Amino acid sequence: MKSRFAPSPTGYLHIGGARTALFVWAWAKKQHGKFVLRIEDTDLERSTQASVDAILQGMDWLGLDYDEGPFYQTDRFDRHKQVVQQLLDEKKAYYCECSKERLQILREDLTKQGKKAKYDGCCRDKGLNVGVVRFNNLEEGLVVFNDVIKGKISINNKELDDLIIARSDGTPTYNLTVVVDDHDMQIDCVIRGDDHINNTPKQINLYQALNWDLPEFAHLPMILGSDGTRLSKRHGAVSVMAYRDAGFLPEALLNYLARLGWSHGDQEIFSMDEVIKLFELKNINKAPASFNQEKLLWLNQETIKNSSVENLLNNLTWHLQNQAITVTDTPDIKTIVQHLQGRCKTLVGMASEVKMFYQDFDILDEKLAKKHFKDKAPLKHLLTKLKALSTWQANNIKQAIKEVCFELNISFSKVGQPFRLALSGNGNAGSIDIVAELIGKDKALSRLKMAIDFLKNSRY
Ligand code: GLU
């Protein structure tokens, strides 16, 4: 069994495309079949190599591995032209040289009369041999198909145009190339967005004219933004790679996309193995799905929490480089990641928290300094106690903080907060005793001294 993802390279891989790719991939894996990637680059004006690269990069980052391809439709133009010629020879297609102006007037007239604006067949019997090539669509009868998701769909041939299958320069158009390629690549199930549902009856007529078996069709409902309109840039990032940049794990995004329109009971968290096992096209909702950034962020946090340190590190490396953070042997980055994975919503946040374990800083957050550095006594006292510690471990450090609180008769936060700021520079740190242990005694003490000096010289 085979299915395919067939993006047009006219932009990056977006959320909607990625969800289609995921469903096609899951369907193929579930059938122990093949997943084909086909780049539909027949629109020579709008297709770019940069978009091809961006799509491949997005697929790669998501881990949606394809078994065949990438195939490029432009490499198959000869085959497409051969099929166009076959249809011409069998009088199932004809040349048309109607001008744009004539077609425009025709369209306006028909619309005025309240009729369907379609080609009137003016050139059908002229026997021309130049111009665009039109498919000779049947005038009568119904095109009926059973969409796996939407159910039975029936269209009257009267509604369908004599569609253009080749431009006047001979290049074939989408509806022709898609039929030829799906047939030649032996695609069993065509899974795609429901923006193509109107093309399906035209394609079915082409299959029939060519005496080819029909694949199954499954049209995915669209994805809406929070305001109920079709998901677009207005709703925030729609490019898959923008989610990598914002610190999402690919498996969290995939998990989220899997739930966009598909469900298995109330379950929210799925591994990709589970998606493959449980995936059924018939369990996809007919109604559009809504994209919810907050839920995606929550899923990312959960996925980070439950991920292996190795996997987090694999994904974090890009962010560390991106933020120019250099990691050394001590402290062990694995221990740091383990410490941070319970508290970070994104890998961007994690990378910026990693920084304090390896890099000193010379500025402290001014607002927080104003708030927490009112009195130098707690920090000085703490410095003396910490210096004296013979083992640098979280529990001893915590004990030292407690002793300072007790001796100065102040609350834990009166020592903990300024200490946290002294160690992190921005107050962004988890359990302060653990953070101090991981930073190491020398660095922790020197940062504490720096904070005390800062206090001496400041007017707070
Ligand atoms: N190339 C089309 C698109 O990107 C998809 C065509 C198809 O799946 O049949 O919208």
Automatic annotation (TrEMBL):
The keyword Electron transport does not apply. One of its GO terms (molecular function) is glutamate-tRNA ligase activity. A motif ('HIGH' region) lies at residues 7-17. Binds 1 zinc ion per subunit. It catalyses: tRNA(Glu) + L-glutamate + ATP = L-glutamyl-tRNA(Glu) + AMP + diphosphate. ATP binds at K233. Belongs to the class-I aminoacyl-tRNA synthetase family. Glutamate--tRNA ligase type 1 subfamily. This is Glutamate--tRNA ligase. The gene is gltX. Gene3D superfamilies: 1.10.10.350, HUPs (3.40.50.620). Pfam families: Anticodon_2 (PF19269), tRNA-synt_1c (PF00749). Coiled coil: none annotated. Zn(2+) binds at C96, C98, C123, D125.
